[in-house]
Amino acid sequence: MDHFDYVDGAMHVEQVPMEAIAAAVGTPVYVYSTATLSRHVGVFREALSALENPLIAFAVKANPNAAVLATLGRLGLGADVVSGGELLRAIAAGIPADRIVFSGVGKTAEEMRVALEKGIYQFNLESEPEAEMLSEVALSMGRRAPVAYRINPDVDAGTHAKISTGKSENKFGIPYDRALESYAAARDLPGLDVQGVAVHIGSQLTDLAPLEAAFVKVGALIEALRGAGHAIRTADLGGGLGVPYDPAQPMPPSPADYGAMVTRVTQGWDVRLMFEPGRVIVGNAGALLSRVVRVKQGAQAPFVIVDAAMNDLLRPSLYDAWHDIRAVRPAGDKAKANVVGPVCETGDTFAMGRDMDVVQADDLVAFMTAGAYGATMASTYNSRALTPEVLVSGDKWAVVRARPPIEALIAGDSIPDWVAD
To answer: Known catalytic residue: 344?
Structure first.
């Protein structure tokens, strides 16, 4: 459920007309709903209510906007970060360091140093050399780093190949069958406090079976590690729960179904469970608002050319992802159309042969379920300004990231003397 509804024939986000935002800010623009964020946090927390003190660490990569992070932090969420930049963003937004988990395969010594200084809750290590580097950094600072190893369980998540992370050929984690050896080596490294196990098998999962298979392996590993003398106190089960993009496709499992499975599978583990939801929290809370530049007739269907492009919303080009495209003020007629952007790439295509509202030049359209992996993946390709972002709460709204002027983009370059002379 989201809070993008039609009132008197025009789309509103909560109590604010989308047309008013477009008139004030221009297009394209990302629009987020506070009420939807709050509802999704509540639904996810309720799904885990049978668990004792779980840590719900929002996957910052899904949407790192400071206002979004601050909203989620005030709702009690922590943060899962994968870079030093995300770590500093989360802390700047008010998320306490003791609710932050640092994941990612390429942590640098400097990023480790900053995380130790801030006092984060856990490092999710992804390789033995990373453990050795963190040991050296912790020793140099006189600190002990709380760590877990991310395990690669070789489970096919059944999702898009580019967002699958738990198969043996993926770059993430250490192989399951090497875990006991890796943990034994980590225990001997000074400066490390080996406290947990972590797993994450992919994103936009629409079936609970792969998750359950991975969690069963984690449970067996915890038992084996304790048998080898390790004091395992935490288990990070990752994120990845899918959201409905295409209404024609079956609904993904609900958070309630997910929570029931987790509760059943983890019974008796005697650990603090941790979760890294991203898309399921922010996906439906955002829409990309765009204006139709013109409509031109194609060979089979008209091309609806909008002012949003692949640099604003990369998912359709990168993943062949489906986003519902709605007219902000629909006239009532529907027809097949191709929806494309102005970037000079054939890949700048949002939909082909899509049954959708008939629109004309200057009409507004909304790309739905764009709150996750939307603005965060935007670029300035074709020298286009980064997309602004707006947060709505009831009848109030604010620009929470302004559209930078093109002049600022140009000013970021410098011309060497030997070129200028």
So the answer is: yes
